[in-house]
C-alpha cells in the first residue's frame, strides 16, 4: 500500500482504532509537529508497517465535526497524494457526533471528488489514485457515493470539454446513450426542424447565428411507474455563449463553454437517479444551442414570440439563457402534468455579484420547495440562498412594444432572471437555481480540482432522495 490516511481529533486523539498502530505515528506527535487541529495535514514516512506514507489528518474538535470538515480534510489528503501514490487505505473516524452513513458519504465525497483529473488535452497525463480502500465505512453508503461522484465526473467532463465537441447534437446523443444504458430512461430529441414546427420561437431565435443546430432534449426517468407524480428538472444548455450581437468583451468569453453547466447537471442527475434506481419519476429537459454571431443572428430591439405565446422584446442578446429556458419550461408544462419543476442555469453575472461563488441563488414561488432545496444544499454543501420575487420587480421588465422584455437595468440582475422565468410558469411548484457563481468558482474548494465543479448533481440527488423517503 502506497499510503494510509489516518484521522485525528484535536488534542492528538486518534479518531480511528489505533490498536497496534501507535508506533507508526508517535514520532511526529511527540515532536509536536501534529496536533489534530482542523485543516492540519502531515505526511509521515514510517520505518515499519505496510504503508510507505502516513497522512495524518486533523479534524479539529470532535464536538464540532461536520460533514464539510470531513470532505475538506480527506480531499486535502488525496490532493497531496495524487501523482505520488497509486493505492491508499482510507480510515474513517469513529464518533457519535455524526451518523455512520453521513461520515461515510462525506469522507468518500472528499476522496472521490478530489481524485478527479481532466487531462484529455494533455500530452503528459495527470495521475490519480487507482486503488482506494475504505476502512470503517458503511458499504451501502460508500457504493452510493461512488455512483454519485462518478456522475459528477461525467458532468465535469461535459462542462469542461471543448465547445466544438460538446454541441447541442452531442448532448442529445449523450441523452440517447443514457436511454440505451438504463431501461428506466427514455429519450426524445427535437432538432431544428421540429423546434421550428413546434414554434419554440425563443430557442429558435437564439440559435439563428450558429452553424450548429439547436436541440430540445427530453429525458424521461420512470423509477416509480405506478405513481402519477412527475417532477421536471430543466437545464440551460448554451454550449457556447459569445453574447450574440451584444458581444462579450475579452476576458468574459473564455469560460463560456461552461455555459451549458445547467444541462450538464441535468444529465448527471438523470444518470444518478437511474444508477441508484430511485423510486421517483423525473423528466429532464435541456434547451440547447450556441449563442453565436452570424448573418441570421437575432437582433436587439426586435420582438420574438415564445412557445407559450408570450412576446418578448430582446434588449440584450447576452441575456439568452432565460429565452432558451422559457421555451423549455413552457414545453414541458404543456406536455406533462407536473407536481414540481426546477430549472438550473448559469444565468446571470449578478448572482456572482450578490452571493459570490459560495452559494447558488434560489428563487421560487413555493416556500416548501425552497425549504427542501435549502436543506439538500446544507446537507451536500452545495448551498442555496433564496432571493425575493416581489411584484414590484416586474416593472423592470415592462416593455412598450411586447408583453415583456428580456433584460432591464443592471439593478437586481439575478432577480430579473427569476422574474422573467416566472412569467412562463403556470400553476405548479417551481424553483429557479442560478449557478453562475458556483459552477466554475475561482479559487476552487479542496475537492474541486478543476474550475468546473459539477454543481447540481449532488444537490438534486439529495433532493430527490429526500422526496423518495417521504
Q: How would you explain this protein's 3D organization?
A:
Helix content is about 35%, strand content about 20%. The model has no long low-confidence stretch (mean pLDDT about 95). It has helices at about 20-30, 65-80, 100-115, 140-160, 170-180, 190-195, 200-205, 260-275, 320-335, 350-355, 365-380, 415-420, 455-470; strands spanning about 5-10, 15, 40-45, 55-60, 85-90, 130-135, 185-190, 215-220, 230-240, 280-290, 305, 310-315, 340-345, 360-365, 385, 405, 430-435. The chain is α/β, with parallel strands linked by helices. The protein has an eight-stranded mixed β-sheet with strand order 7-8-10-9-13-17-14-15, sandwiched between helices. Strands 1, 2, 3, 4, 5 and 6 form a six-stranded mixed β-sheet that branches. The two termini are about 45 Å apart. The chain has two domains: about 5-135, Leucine Aminopeptidase, subunit E, domain 1 (3-Layer(aba) Sandwich), CATH 3.40.220; about 150-470, Zn peptidases (Aminopeptidase), CATH 3.40.630.
How helical, in percent, are the residues? 25-40%
Q: What best-fitting shape do the alpha-carbon axes yield?
A: elongated
List low-confidence stretches: none
* DSSP summary: helix tally: 13
In CATH, the homologous superfamily of the largest domain goes by the name Zn peptidases
Strand order of the largest sheet: 7-8-10-9-13-17-14-15
For the biggest sheet, the summary is: 8 strands, mixed
What is the N-to-C succession of helices and strands? EEHEEHEHEHHEHHEEHEEEHEHEHEEHEH
Amino acid at each position: 500500500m502506497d499510503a494510509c490516511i489516518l484521522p485525528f481529533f484535536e488534542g492528538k486523539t486518534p479518531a480511528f482504532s489505533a490498536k497496534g498502530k501507535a508506533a507508526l505515528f508517535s514520532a511526529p506527535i511527540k515532536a509536536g509537529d501534529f496536533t489534530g487541529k482542523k485543516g492540519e495535514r502531515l505526511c509521515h514516512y514510517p520505518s515499519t508497517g505496510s504503508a510507505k506514507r502516513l497522512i495524518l489528518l486533523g479534524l479539529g474538535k470532535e464536538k464540532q465535526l461536520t460533514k464539510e470538515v470531513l470532505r475538506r480534510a480527506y480531499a486535502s489528503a488525496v490532493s497531496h497524494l495524487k501523482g505520488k501514490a497509486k493505492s491508499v487505505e482510507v480510515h474513517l473516524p469513529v464518533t457519535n457526533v455524526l451518523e455512520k452513513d453521513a461520515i461515510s458519504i462525506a469522507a468518500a465525497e472528499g476522496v472521490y471528488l478530489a481524485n478527479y483529473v481532466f487531462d484529455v488535452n494533455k500530452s503528459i497525463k495527470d495521475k490519480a489514485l487507482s486503488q482506494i480502500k475504505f476502512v470503517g465505512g458503511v458499504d451501502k453508503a460508500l457504493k452510493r457515493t461512488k455512483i454519485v461522484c462518478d456522475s459528477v465526473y461525467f458532468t465535469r467532463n461535459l462542462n469542461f470539454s471543448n465547445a466544438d465537441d460538446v454541441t447541442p447534437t452531442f448532448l442529445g446523443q449523450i441523452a440517447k446513450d443514457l436511454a440505451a444504458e438504463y431501461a428506466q430512461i427514455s429519450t426524445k430529441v427535437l432538432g431544428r426542424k421540429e423546434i421550428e414546427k413546434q414554434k419554440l420561437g425563443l430557442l429558435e431565435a437564439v440559435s439563428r447565428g450558429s452553424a450548429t443546430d439547436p436541440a430540445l432534449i427530453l429525458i424521461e426517468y420512470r423509477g416509480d411507474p405506478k405513481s402519477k407524480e412527475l417532477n421536471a428538472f430543466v437545464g440551460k444548455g448554451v454550449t457556447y455563449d459569445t453574447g450574440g450581437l451584444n458581444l462579450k468583451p475579452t476576458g468574459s468569453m473564455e469560460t463560456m463553454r461552461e455555459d451549458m453547466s445547467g444541462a450538464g447537471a441535468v444529465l448527471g442527475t438523470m444518470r444518478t437517479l437511474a444508477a441508484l434506481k430511485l423510486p421517483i419519476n423525473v423528466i429532464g429537459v435541456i434547451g440547447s444551442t450556441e449563442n453565436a454571431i452570424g448573418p441570421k443572428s437575432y437582433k436587439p430591439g426586435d420582438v420574438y414570440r415564445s412557445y407559450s405565446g408570450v412576446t418578448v422584446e430582446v434588449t440584450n442578446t447576452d441575456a439568452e439563457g432565460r429565452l432558451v429556458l422559457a421555451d423549455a419550461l413552457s414545453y414541458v408544462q404543456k406536455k406533462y402534468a407536473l407536481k414540481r419543476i426546477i430549472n438550473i442555469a448559469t444565468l446571470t453575472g449578478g448572482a456572482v455579484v450578490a452571493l459570490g461563488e459560495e452559494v447558488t441563488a434560489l428563487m421560487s414561488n413555493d416556500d416548501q420547495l425552497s425549504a427542501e432545496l435549502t436543506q439538500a444544499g446544507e446537507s451536500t454543501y452545495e448551498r442555496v440562498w433564496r432571493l425575493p420575487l416581489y411584484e414590484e420587480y416586474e416593472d423592470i421588465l415592462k416593455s412598450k412594444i411586447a408583453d415583456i422584455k428580456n433584460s432591464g437595468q443592471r439593478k437586481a440582475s439575478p432577480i430579473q432572471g427569476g422574474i422573467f422565468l416566472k412569467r412562463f410558469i403556470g400553476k405548479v411548484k417551481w424553483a429557479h437555481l442560478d449557478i453562475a457563481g458556483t459552477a466554475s468558482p475561482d479559487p476552487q474548494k479542496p475537492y474541486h480540482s478543476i474550475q468546473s465543479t459539477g454543481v447540481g448533481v449532488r444537490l438534486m440527488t439529495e433532493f430527490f432522495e429526500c422526496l423518495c423517503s417521504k
